[in-house]
User: What shape does this take?
Amino acid sequence: MQGMMDGMMGGGMMWGIGLFWLLILVVLVLAAGALIKYLFFSGKRS
Assistant: This one.
């Protein structure tokens, strides 16, 4: 039972979930950076 669970979770599924969360994290960081940049630049213009 334990070996089957390790085989399923330790394979492509775990890599897929890891890459999915890494992609989400990158998108959130880029969105936060864009929002901060937009807020600072729009604040200085007006």
User: Anything to note?
Assistant: The radius of gyration is 19 Å. The mean pLDDT is 81.
